[in-house]
Design goal:
Blueprint (H helix, E strand, L loop, with lengths): L2 E12 L3 E12 L2 H22 L6 E15 L2 E18 L2 H12 L5 E8 L3 H26 L4 E9 L7 E8 L14 E13 L1
């Protein structure tokens, strides 16, 4: 049985549908309990800021939490600085620029000190992967039909399809980052999220 093997290339360019704000609250205090308490107060301030902006407080989720002793090295000696609490948080919501501006304004007025970044993404990774595979298979079918016709042959059944297991990119290249939370207008138009994937299709050649 004669066969024809072709590689289809799928390309997608999709408009982001979700905002992701990633920030880390950092507190240092000589006292363990006070350090933990300060972090809790800052966290609650951010939760209330999110609520005032029009989102539910539990939209703000903890990605990681670490409370540990912090040391500096001076004159070859290890010197205790205090306890450090690093609370990394993630806030995601449907892309809405006026809402994003409101969120940033409230976070900036919260009084909490944090490093943060704003990114734009596609929420449904499965849909992204499906769109890529559909585009790649369609490209393979078009290539195979063209090659078969040029050779005076007809395509038969598909013998096999092979595709990679790479995870799609979900993030736009547009990113906004600042060293501390502050009120800021983010009236931006994020770039589309681009992806490329391939499939290899083997056809019977009649």
């Amino acid at each position: 049985m004669k066969q024809l093997t072709v590689t289809g290339v799928g390309k997608t360019s999709e408009t982001p549908d979700t905002v992701e704000i990633d920030f880390t609250l950092s507190v240092v205090n000589q006292d363990y309990a006070a350090c933990n308490a300060q972090s809790a107060v800052a966290f609650e301030s951010l939760r209330q800021a999110v609520y005032r902006a029009g989102l539910q407080p539990d939209t703000l989720r903890t990605a990681s939490f670490r409370l540990s002793a912090r040391y500096d090295h001076k004159g070859g000696e290890k010197v205790f600085v205090g306890y450090e609490c690093a609370h990394r948080l993630v806030l995601r919501f449907t892309l809405d620029i006026p809402l994003l501006d409101a969120v940033m304004a409230e976070l900036g007025d919260s009084g909490a000190y944090a490093d943060f970044s704003v990114r734009f993404m596609l929420y449904d990774d499965r849909a992204v992967k499906n769109n890529l595979l559909q585009a790649a298979v369609a490209d393979a079918a078009e290539k195979a039909a063209t090659i078969a016709a040029a050779a005076g042959k007809r395509l038969g059944d598909i013998v096999s399809i092979t595709y990679g297991s790479n995870e799609p990119n979900l993030y736009s290249r547009t990113e906004y980052a600042r060293p501390r939370l502050m009120a800021a207008s983010l009236s931006v138009q994020p770039e589309d999220v681009e992806n490329v994937d391939t499939v290899t299709v083997v056809y019977e050649l009649l």
